[in-house]
Amino acid sequence: MSRIGKRPITIPNKVTVEINGQNVVVKGPKGSLERSLPSQIKVEQDGDTINISRQDESRTARERHGLVRTLVANMVEGVSNGFQKRLEIQGVGYRAQAQGSKLTLNVGYSKPVEMNMPQEIQVAVENNTQVVVSGINKEIVGNIAAQIRAVRPPEPYKGKGIRYQGEFVRRKAGKTGKK
Q1: Which of 17, 83, 86, 90 has its CA 20 to 30 Å from the CA of residue 31?
Q2: Domains in the chain: how many in total?
Q3: In a 10 Å sphere around its CB, with 0-12 CB exposed, 13-18 middle and 19+ buried, how is residue 15 labelled?
Q4: For residue 30, which phi and psi values (nearest 5 degrees)?
């Protein structure tokens, strides 16, 4: 039995879960999420808990058991509290601006980099060097944060670039000149 897959998911008060065969719809105060699940996995609702079980002991069912439990738990967490990723911009003259669903990054290139955000993602910029990506879908929030970081990843010599908050960047010594 999967250690993660067998743990029940508790449903908060303001969240409703609808299970239609292999489709799971989770609605809450922040919005609603829908996901279709693999056929080897069975989802059951018991009052205010959700239990995930396998229909057989095949390899694919065992592989997906814990995955599906985590996906459904993230859906419940997303519609009740939401998710956010914070990024820091370091470097002289590096800054970000958010206007509606557009994020503009000035990170040392000849022209600013403009990124359009999907509807379900909110982007906020705090004091020009902190970018906060938030939304109800953990997967999309993480992907957008990774795309923003990929514009200018932190470099190991001076540490300039875009990094996740709290990310440690291993620094290297520069080359020593001739004497």
Answers
A1: 86
A2: 2
A3: buried
A4: -90, -15
What's the pLDDT score for residue 176?
83
* φ and ψ of 74, to 5 deg: -70, -35
In this predicted model, what pLDDT tens digit does every residue of 40-82 receive, in sequence order?
888 888 888 999 888 888 898 888 898 999 999 999 999 999 9
Quote the CA–CA distance of 83 and 76 in Å, as a whole number. 11
pLDDT tens figures, 95-154: 999 998 899 999 989 999 999 999 989 999 999 899 999 999 999 999 999 999 999 999
Closest CA to 34 of 42, 23, 48: 23
Claim to verify: residue 28 and residue 75 sit in the same structural domain? yes
Q: Would residue 52 count as lying in a domain?
A: yes
The rounded radius of gyration (Å) of the Cα atoms in the chain is: 21
Look-up of token digits 């200018």: 152
Q: How far apart are CA 28 and CA 3, in angstroms?
A: 27
Residues 150 and 97 in one domain: yes
For residue 98, the Cα-to-chain-centroid distance in whole angstroms is 19
Instruction: Please report how many Cα atoms fall inside a 13 Å half-sphere around the Cα of residue 61, on the Cβ side.
Output: 13
